[in-house]
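Figure-free illustration: sequence to structure, shown twice.
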Amino acid sequence: YSSGRGGRFQLWETGIDGLDSGLKLLGDHVGVAMHPAVRPGQPSAEPEVAFEHLIRHDHIWRLDLKNPEPARRPEQVTRSTWSDHTPVVSPDGTMLAFSSDQSGTSGVWVAPSDGKGIPQLLTRTERPHRNVWASSWSPDGKSLSVFPMERNSEIRLDDRHVTQLSLDAPDGGTEHFRSRDGRSVFFFAPADGKPNLWVQAEGSQRARRITPDRASAAAESFDGKTVYYTKHPDYPYGLWSIPLGGGPEKLVVPGVRTSSWSASREGIYFLDFSDGSRNRYLPRDVLFHGFGTVGTQKVAHLESAGAVNLLPGFSVSADGRWIYWSQRDYLNSDISALTGW
């Protein structure tokens, strides 16, 4: 059967009791595999399974918001024939980290943010069915946190050294990111049965819960006074905020979807999902909410010739000039086969 366990659909085999006895991954080289049909083996032949092999070309694009319209045109940043997604731009705006399976399995790559250099592989998983991605840069731009591989740790770009963080995280926590001054670590971990945001000061052994209800993605304001966050993907779309010094949470902007927003020094940029749509397709507007202001303003419109599928990840440079996103530019499928597994 085909299963998306670990984040990517591949072929699996299990015992007929349905209890995962003898669970085994088949053909870890096939990429995305779906809709298998098995032909039993004969005395003179091995068993064979035919399946649909999806071919995806997912690329990262960027747009210069300072370039006046109509001269403003999206620029393609990555050009592989694989799946490149989840872009995260470095604090100084010169480098881009992203997830890609162009090495055969999912890994984190780093490249110049203008797309003019050769991407370098930082780390990758050895498990073909598992996706990994860079969740954040360190404030100095010298390290990356990679999830779910190397959980609660940071990888240095220069020598690939891994530093393990000692976090007071229930169940080990999930993604984390550094505070703007680098002196604290924010991370997601369960509280009252729901994912919430916590913070732990450097050198401390105890963490403090930040969000009262739930959180699924977050960013600290550049002045270090406020945290902005969205809630669980199944929760109504919206961007929330809460003072780090204490106080109630409040809904800042409705229509903001998890993994479709990013913070600059001046405010929040996000893709408009105020229609409540669960379909991640272009065309779509890019809106801006300035810190300390009310409401939003349209800053760009991401156009497309047809319904182009958006992938996870949306990032803005700290100066608010460039936005980055990932989209599916090509999708097709072949019929392939595996023999004798």
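We now fold a second protein in the same way, so the two outputs can be compared directly.
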Amino acid sequence: MIPTQRVPDGMELAAKERMADTTARRKTRNTRIILACVQGAYDIAGGGWALLNMRGFEAVTGPKHDDWLVRTVAGILLVLGAVLLHDALRRRYIGSSLGIMAGGISGVLALVAITASLMGTISWPYFLDGLIHASFVIGWLLAARSPLEG
């Protein structure tokens, strides 16, 4: 259970507003940390799978013509996931720049995966992956709307 702070009845309005602002910032900070942790773990798992077991990866997602491209995207996901997990597990501040990068990369992956799978260019597991990445985009957009910086 998270302890709550009590505001005395005679406290000035400005002090009450500061306490409310501090609480909102703490919630936003925790939301960003959780989001970074979840996306980081997901990106490391997906990127690592493609790099460590290409045969198993292709068994689920379908054969690939350009293994180098799969390895490139997997490497990018590993780096992004490592940065997200590094900061999240140390409960560090997850700034807007990192959120923009994480949400932006997920946005590109979601757009490509969802549209290409609906067009039949790539297999259906990519559609599911695209939905997961779309949920990360929504999470980062919601976190960006909340007060944290300033």
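Summary for the second example: Helices lie at 13-52, 54-61, 67-89, 96-118, 125-145.
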